[in-house]
């Protein structure tokens, strides 16, 4: 039987082929019937949405909800960018040429959906260029990347909530930590949301606590980076929503969202994150959404749109 696919179905298959080549998962979708090759069916329960008021520290999520954790994927590029800038390894306008593929070792390469050409750091963040960050990571050690991960709180509790997996010493090459693909770094949704809050507030987030702890007292979390580094991180996150991986979230720019996405392999499928804050010009809220199945582009961003625009934010 010959299967004829529409242009939209071919587009889906092309994206999946790219993602599977990115993570070394083969191309099983190419052998499926067209009806099965579309987006995976994801139930509403597959999404976990968390938010925090960046003035009071109060977090919102359903009582008793399991707080997911997992490899951060490209969300980790915020940490990597900070490490590159703070160590003066790179300046914001230093450029690398993205050819679409970067060879990391004899057996491993990373890919971009299309070649970005000559690209600087803010654009590499906004467009989530794997080639750029894998290339830049060769100038950093895994130990340095993990130290900046600690600075961002990836080894610490969020309020009274425990953190995810974080190593005492590196077990993988630097590029895997730079791209958030090292399996020994698996932060929780709350830790990832706090990262976005730190960028939004330029280094200080109030003590984060759940709505069930209205009078909770605690020490604010602080991240000491230069003002120039925060400027680049914020610029990259704003760009991600305007023209990068989150451009379909708020095309009319109603909420002024700044964000970072991340997709990671999960068996023969994917899991994904979107974290960020809004409004970008006067941050009030940070958020994090976890999709237990699917990529950030196909599943997490559309789900996040429902949460953000289906809520009357004070």
Q: Mean pLDDT, as a whole number?
A: 86
Instruction: Tell me the CATH superfamily of the largest domain.
Output: DD-peptidase/beta-lactamase superfamily
Rg to the nearest angstrom? 19 Å
Query: Tell me, what is the CATH class of the largest domain?
Result: Alpha Beta
Under CATH, the topology of the largest domain can be stated as Beta-lactamase
Give the number of domains.
Answer: 2
Low-confidence stretches: 1-42
Report the biggest beta sheet as strand number plus sense, adding barrel if it closes.
Answer: 6 strands, mixed
CATH architecture classification of the largest domain: 3-Layer(aba) Sandwich
Proportion in helices: 25-40%
Give a count of the beta strands, DSSP E runs of length 2 or more.
12
Percentage of β-strand residues: 15-25%
Strand order of the largest sheet: 8-2-1-12-11-10
Secondary structure tally, helices: 9
Q: Kindly name the structural category.
A: alpha+beta
Silhouette? globular
Order of helices and strands: HEEHEEEEHHHHHEEEHEEEH
How far is the N terminus from the C terminus?
Answer: 56 Å
